[in-house]
Amino acid sequence: MNKYFITIAGNIGVGKSTLVGLLAQRLHWEPVYEAVTENPYLADFYQDMPRWSFHSQVFFLARRLQQHHRLLRQPRSAIQDRSVYEDAEIFARNLHTQGYMSQRDWGAYYELYQTLALLLPPPDLVIYLQASVATLKRRIAQRGRDYEREISEAYLQQLNAMYDAWANSFSLSPVLIVNTDNLDYVQNGAHLDQIWARIQDRLMGRDFLALGS
User: 208 in a domain, yes or no?
Assistant: First the structure.
């Protein structure tokens, strides 16, 4: 039996963790969620982003790399919630774009990330979940996390644009793009069946069209 490593990527509130859980339950794969180790720089980061953004992102990068390495060594197939690539290409890059990380710090961070990414075997497949800002806002409100209530539409739109650019240029693994605006894989089993069928096609090397587009 083949062993697979799949990672699910996408913006805040798009439904990554939910899909990880549903697919892991269906396939009896190992679900791997975002690392919960407390970042010792986080409180300082929120008080002074320009000063602490580099330290905070290096900590997140180290934890994500450790998780990725463990996934490659375990015997079971696994499906991961958010990848090491997103930490760098989306969230750290966005801090630099917004002026919270200096050019010098960004250059050092990104060079470290690129070197490690080349050495680390990539997933067999990246599933990129897309959603409009309106859909993201609705789902964020539904899950009711207080610390997410103040996330602005402009911030979500900026992340969406960065995710689209990243997914369209990512070449380390095959990428399956799934637009989730009109999919409800929680309430509709047929939608989950569609996603799994496309995953199987991609893992077997068959051509496919972006789902939900």
Answer: no
How many percent of the chain have pLDDT more than 90? 54
Question: How confident is the prediction for the chain on average, in pLDDT?
Answer: 88
Residues 89, 94, 97, 103, Cα dihedral to 10°:
-60
pLDDT tops 70 at residue 41: yes
CATH number where 159 lies = 3.40.50.300
Q: Which of 44, 81, 105, 207 is catalytic?
A: 81
Residue 9 lies in a domain: yes
- Per the annotation, the verdict on 81 as an active-site residue is yes
Residue 11 pLDDT more than 90?
Answer: yes
The boundaries of the domain holding residue 23 are 5-203
Q: How many domains does the chain have?
A: 1
> pTM for the complete prediction?
0.86
